[in-house]
């Protein structure tokens, strides 16, 4: 795909997200990029996202490798979500959402999780920062911590981890449901239920 990179709209622990535009069609999309030498997690995310197709999951657009400013970059292209994250929406609404919005977004997140789990995928990092918004509502994004259920790697954000995950026992479908519960509290109160936990991601 022939494209141009625009301004940065977000940062993750290993990659930056920018707005981009196709030179051929003018389509606007998001591109998540990191140096190729450090792209293990982004390549894993690309492999998972490329297998998904749901109205409740951010659309996959492709990937490529480019040379920019004397660096070789791995780029993951995906749907651009113009309304930002669920956290952005909570802040816009004064620190908490009303019950109608909470129900609306929760239903869509549950439908997204149901789809992922039916495909044998655990997201492992459900939280407001990873729920992206557009005119149709909420979609699940950021699959950098995701895994197939036969995997053993533990990842995610400490404040949203289920107790069994913190203990190092497992990270299965139930861990996503726990994190969803924490996210609902986040929507209702504007904060985490575990205020004493230090967030490392």
From TrEMBL:
The keyword Transferase applies. It comes from the Eukaryota. InterPro entries: Kinase-like_dom_sf (IPR011009), Plant_MAPKKK (IPR052751), Prot_kinase_dom (IPR000719), Protein_kinase_ATP_BS (IPR017441), Ser/Thr_kinase_AS (IPR008271). ATP binds at residue 32. The keyword Cytoplasm does not apply. One of its GO terms (biological process) is signal transduction. Pfam families: Pkinase (PF00069). One of its GO terms (molecular function) is protein kinase activity. PROSITE patterns: PROTEIN_KINASE_ATP, PROTEIN_KINASE_DOM, PROTEIN_KINASE_ST. Residues 3-201 form the Protein kinase domain. Keywords: ATP-binding, Kinase, Nucleotide-binding, Serine/threonine-protein kinase, Transferase. SMART domains: S_TKc. Belongs to the protein kinase superfamily. This is Mitogen-activated protein kinase kinase kinase. It comes from Solanum tuberosum (Potato). The lineage of its organism: Eukaryota, Viridiplantae, Streptophyta, Embryophyta, Tracheophyta.
